[in-house]
Amino acid sequence: MTLFTYCPDCWPADMVDYVDGHCAICGAVLTTTTDPEKHISLLEEQRDCLADCLHDAMQWLEHAGVKTVPRRPALGLIHVRRQP
To answer: How far apart are CA 31 and CA 20, in angstroms?
Structure first.
């Protein structure tokens, strides 16, 4: 397992902006782990927080009257038949 470095103070909003072993946002000393279970739990925590933020943003847009429209894909598949 490779090293996983993160800011313990900014996590889960860690922006991966590091300078000389410190977080460029808050200045905290970075934490490094090689434990796969810890790595997974940190990523799950970050995923859950991002999902909550996205949900809040969607609610804010709905309350502001922004309409969401289902989009069609801009690109489509084209099937080309090869000639023998």
So the answer is: 13
pLDDT tens, position by position, 26-73: 889 988 888 889 888 988 998 998 899 899 988 998 888 887 666 666
d(CA 48, CA 50): 5
Q: Is 21 inside a domain boundary?
A: yes
Tracing tokens 């796969």 back to the chain, one arrives at: 36
| Domain assignment of residue 10, given as a range | 4-63
Q: Classify residue 16 as left (phi > 0), alpha (psi -120 to 50) or beta.
A: left
Question: Which long-range contacts link 74-83 to residues 24+ away (Cβ below 8 Å)?
Answer: none
46 within some domain: yes
pTM here is 0.64
